[in-house]
Amino acid sequence: MPWKLASFGTLLAAVVLTGCSTAESAKDPVATETGHSRCESAAAQFAIGKKASPELLEQARTRSGAQNARILKPNDMVTLEYRSDRLNLNTDANLVITRVNCG
Protein backbone atom coordinates (compact mmCIF):
# COMPACT_ATOMS: atom_id res chain seq x y z
CA MET A 1 0.00 0.00 0.00
CA PRO A 2 2.73 2.59 0.79
CA TRP A 3 4.21 1.99 -2.68
CA LYS A 4 0.92 2.83 -4.31
CA LEU A 5 0.75 6.07 -2.32
CA ALA A 6 4.33 6.97 -3.26
CA SER A 7 3.64 6.22 -6.92
CA PHE A 8 0.48 8.31 -6.85
CA GLY A 9 2.35 11.20 -5.18
CA THR A 10 5.10 11.07 -7.81
CA LEU A 11 2.55 11.01 -10.62
CA LEU A 12 0.67 13.93 -9.09
CA ALA A 13 3.89 15.98 -8.75
CA ALA A 14 4.80 15.26 -12.39
CA VAL A 15 1.36 16.41 -13.59
CA VAL A 16 1.58 19.63 -11.56
CA LEU A 17 5.09 20.41 -12.85
CA THR A 18 4.04 19.70 -16.43
CA GLY A 19 1.17 22.13 -16.04
CA CYS A 20 3.56 24.83 -14.81
CA SER A 21 5.92 24.41 -17.74
CA THR A 22 3.04 24.49 -20.22
CA ALA A 23 1.75 27.73 -18.72
CA GLU A 24 5.15 29.40 -19.17
CA SER A 25 5.49 28.28 -22.79
CA ALA A 26 2.03 29.72 -23.51
CA LYS A 27 3.41 33.17 -22.57
CA ASP A 28 6.32 32.96 -25.03
CA PRO A 29 4.35 33.83 -28.21
CA VAL A 30 3.08 37.02 -26.58
CA ALA A 31 6.65 38.10 -25.81
CA THR A 32 7.64 37.36 -29.41
CA GLU A 33 4.83 39.49 -30.83
CA THR A 34 5.92 42.51 -28.81
CA GLY A 35 9.63 41.86 -29.45
CA HIS A 36 12.17 44.07 -31.12
CA SER A 37 11.77 45.40 -34.61
CA ARG A 38 14.25 44.54 -37.31
CA CYS A 39 16.94 46.95 -38.39
CA GLU A 40 16.88 48.17 -42.02
CA SER A 41 20.42 49.32 -42.82
CA ALA A 42 19.42 50.77 -46.21
CA ALA A 43 17.59 53.57 -44.41
CA ALA A 44 20.83 54.59 -42.65
CA GLN A 45 23.10 54.61 -45.72
CA PHE A 46 22.94 58.43 -45.71
CA ALA A 47 25.52 58.35 -42.87
CA ILE A 48 28.34 56.95 -45.03
CA GLY A 49 31.07 59.55 -45.51
CA LYS A 50 29.98 61.64 -42.51
CA LYS A 51 31.89 62.07 -39.25
CA ALA A 52 30.50 59.86 -36.48
CA SER A 53 28.74 61.64 -33.62
CA PRO A 54 26.10 60.75 -31.02
CA GLU A 55 23.54 62.87 -32.90
CA LEU A 56 24.24 61.09 -36.21
CA LEU A 57 24.10 57.72 -34.46
CA GLU A 58 20.66 58.48 -33.01
CA GLN A 59 19.37 59.80 -36.34
CA ALA A 60 20.58 56.67 -38.17
CA ARG A 61 19.12 54.41 -35.46
CA THR A 62 15.75 56.11 -35.72
CA ARG A 63 15.61 55.98 -39.52
CA SER A 64 16.67 52.32 -39.63
CA GLY A 65 14.09 51.25 -37.05
CA ALA A 66 16.78 49.66 -34.86
CA GLN A 67 16.34 49.34 -31.11
CA ASN A 68 20.09 49.76 -30.46
CA ALA A 69 22.98 51.32 -32.34
CA ARG A 70 26.73 51.54 -31.93
CA ILE A 71 29.77 53.14 -33.55
CA LEU A 72 32.56 50.68 -34.31
CA LYS A 73 36.12 51.97 -34.76
CA PRO A 74 38.74 49.88 -36.61
CA ASN A 75 40.32 48.24 -33.54
CA ASP A 76 37.26 48.03 -31.30
CA MET A 77 36.53 44.70 -29.66
CA VAL A 78 32.99 43.55 -30.43
CA THR A 79 30.80 40.63 -29.52
CA LEU A 80 29.99 38.22 -32.32
CA GLU A 81 26.33 37.55 -31.64
CA TYR A 82 23.94 38.67 -34.37
CA ARG A 83 21.16 40.99 -33.26
CA SER A 84 18.64 41.89 -35.93
CA ASP A 85 17.55 44.94 -33.92
CA ARG A 86 21.02 46.59 -33.73
CA LEU A 87 22.57 49.08 -36.16
CA ASN A 88 26.35 49.24 -36.59
CA LEU A 89 28.13 52.32 -37.95
CA ASN A 90 31.65 51.22 -38.92
CA THR A 91 34.27 53.98 -39.11
CA ASP A 92 37.84 54.47 -40.24
CA ALA A 93 40.62 55.80 -37.98
CA ASN A 94 39.34 59.38 -38.49
CA LEU A 95 35.82 58.42 -37.32
CA VAL A 96 34.36 58.80 -40.81
CA ILE A 97 31.62 56.24 -41.39
CA THR A 98 32.62 53.73 -44.07
CA ARG A 99 29.94 51.06 -43.68
CA VAL A 100 26.45 50.68 -42.23
CA ASN A 101 25.04 47.28 -41.34
CA CYS A 102 22.71 45.54 -38.94
CA GLY A 103 23.75 42.84 -36.53
Automatic annotation (TrEMBL):
TM annotation in the entry: none
Endpoints of the signal sequence: 1-26
The species this protein was found in: Pseudomonas fluorescens
UniProt entry keywords in alphabetical sequence: Signal
One Pfam family matching this protein: Inhibitor_I78
Domain of life: Bacteria
Name of the protein this chain belongs to: Lipoprotein
